[in-house]
Amino acid sequence: MSEEKNIKTQEPKKDYLIDDESKNMDREPKVESDTYKAAGKLKGKVAIITGGDSGIGAATAILYAKEGAKVAITYYSSDDDAKRTKNRLEELGADVLVFKGDVGDESFAQEVVKRVTDKWGSIDVLVNHAGEQHYQESILDITAEQIDRTYRTNIFSQFYFVKAAFPHFNDGASIINTSSITAYQGNPTLMDYSGTNGARVSFTRSLSQNPEVIEKKIRVNSVAPGPIWTPLIPATFPEEALESWGKDGALGRPGEAYELAPAYVYLASDDSSYVSGQTIHVNGGVVVNG
Fold first, then answer.
1. Phi/psi of residue 14, each to 5°?
2. Residue 118 within any structural domain of the chain
3. CA 87 to CA 70: how far, in whole Å?
4. Which of 132, 161, 198, 200 lies most in the core, judged by the most C-beta atoms within 10 Å?
5. What is the pLDDT of residues 62-71, one digit of tens each?
6. Is residue 265 part of a domain?
7. How far apart are CA 83 and CA 266, in angstroms?
8. What is the pTM of this model?
9. What is the DSSP letter of 25?
10. In a 10 Å sphere around its CB, with 0-12 CB exposed, 13-18 middle and 19+ buried, how is residue 198 labelled?
11. d(Cα 210, Cα 215) in Å, to the nearest integer?
């Protein structure tokens, strides 16, 4: 028992095969599409997006900026991606704040929310997107430190940011938690990661029914991506696993980050005013229940 009390977490992204930065990918990820037509759906709203420096988070931040929101993003270590995303948001005319830190540290969540509300007053949208995963073929290789870190980044952070933001949410605010297809299908080499995504789905459903949340008319939903080509993928999968990766769905290909982002706009906007406790599946045609 005393040994369990002394378990320490590991650093975020420990043992990644490469740094999860866009510049390290052999094919540039696509975070923006010229075909998207904005309609001012988030005009004047304040949004926080964790893990907003690259991939799905960056694609979502770009659409939020196009729709008129003020956008705050967090990231852990990918300075170049964060700078590029910040510059793009500012090109689009958005007010932008960028925060570097560990989302698994509750004090960081509190600092982000304080600085956002000190500048912009209140919060309308919280996107809990930050996450990490660790490829392990044997459960015997999954250490206590890895389990703690994966849960700390992926699910503890969602609690931390909701807690910090809750007093500052405007009535009718939206909370959007990223989960994953692994919550429904599982993944034999991402066991702890899949577990965190099951927790994210259950957290989304439970929070949506909480009386305090209902009283403030806050909607809580989730997006469950399938295989999406982002910096996380080559950073965590060995090359041989990538040969067939993302080809199981009906569309027969991995998705791009920009193909996810409209779902986050929908859930943040008044278009989804009658939607709460639900998960949108954007996975290339894999049929899942729930």
1. -60, 135
2. yes
3. 14
4. 161
5. 999 999 999 9
6. yes
7. 26
8. 0.96
9. -
10. middle
11. 9
